[in-house]
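Final report, closing paragraph on structural work. Over the funding period we assembled a curated collection of sequence-structure pairs, and we close with a single example.
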Amino acid sequence: MLTQINGLHHVTSLARDAKQNNAFFTERLGLRRVKKTVNFDRPDIYHLYYGDTTGSPGTVMTYFPSAERERRKPGTGEVAQTTFSVPAGAIGYWRQRLSEFGTDGLKEEFLFDEKRLLFCGPDGECFALVEVENNPRLGWTAQQVSADVALRGFHSVSLRLNEDRVTAELLTFMGYQKVKTEGRVTRFSIPDGNGAHLVDLETRPDFEPAVQGAGSVHHIAFSVDDRRKQLEVREALTDAGHQVTPVIDRDYFWAIYFRSAGGILFEIATNEPGFDRDEDITQLGEALKLPTQHEHLRAGLELSLPEI
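Its predicted structure, as stored:
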C-alpha cells in the first residue's frame, strides 16, 4: 500500500464558454483565479485554474473551455460530483446566494450524516457543498464572500461506476481506507490527509456509460509532496500493471497519468513548484501565462482567446 498520496490535488473539467465559466467560479462561488494559461496539448483554448489564495493543493478546480463542445451525457465511468468544504453553518448562506444568482439544481440532503447543498454548474456539472467543522484551511475572501462562509477547498469527489470492486482495490493500493457504506455509495479516506482526502464510489449498474463533453470531469489529480515521492508512486503503479505515462512538466506541478479500470483518468501531481513560480502571489491569474513551447504563439493567442 502506498503512503505518499495526501488526497486530491486538483480536478480538471471541460466547459463551453470561458467567460461564463470564469464568472461562475470567481463571482458566484468566490474562488480566486490563480492561473490563466492554455491547454498544453491544444494551445488555442484556455486552461483556467480557480482555488484559494495561493492555489493550494486540494483546492484547485481547473477547466478547458471550448465553444465547440457538446454537453456531456451523464452515466458510469465518470466523476459524477465534485464537492467543496464550507464551514459549519454556511449552507444557509450559500443556498440564498446561489438562489439569487439563479443557480440550477439547488437541493439539500444528508449523506454520511453530513449536511450538503447540491447545485449545478453552467454546463450542467454536479457540485455540492458540505459543512465541515474545525477545518483549518482558509478560503479566498476578496470576492465579497466573508471568511466565515468561504469555500475551503475540496471535500471529496464521487465516482459513478458500473461496479466498484476494482476501483476500490486501486484506491486501497493508493493508500485509501474504506470508511463506510450508505446505500449505493461507499466512502474511502486517507488517514491524516490534506482535507481533500475523501473519495466516494457510487455503484450504478443500471446506468449507461457516460459520454464525455462540456460538464464532464476530464481527470482527477492526487497530491504528492515532491518529485521523489511521485517517482516512487509511478514505480509502484507500473509494477502493479498500470500503464503510467512518463513524468510531464506542467509548469506548476509535475504530472503522471493512468486510467483506472472504471474508465476514469487519474493523475498524480506534485505540490511543487506551485502557482507563484511565474507570478507574484498578489497577481496570480491576471496575466496570460504560456508554456515555453507555446510562447512563440503569444501574439496570435492574445487576439484569438476570448476576453474573460
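The mean pLDDT is 96. Residues 7-304 form a domain with the 2,3-Dihydroxybiphenyl 1,2-Dioxygenase; domain 1 fold (CATH 3.10.180.10). We thank the funder for supporting this effort.
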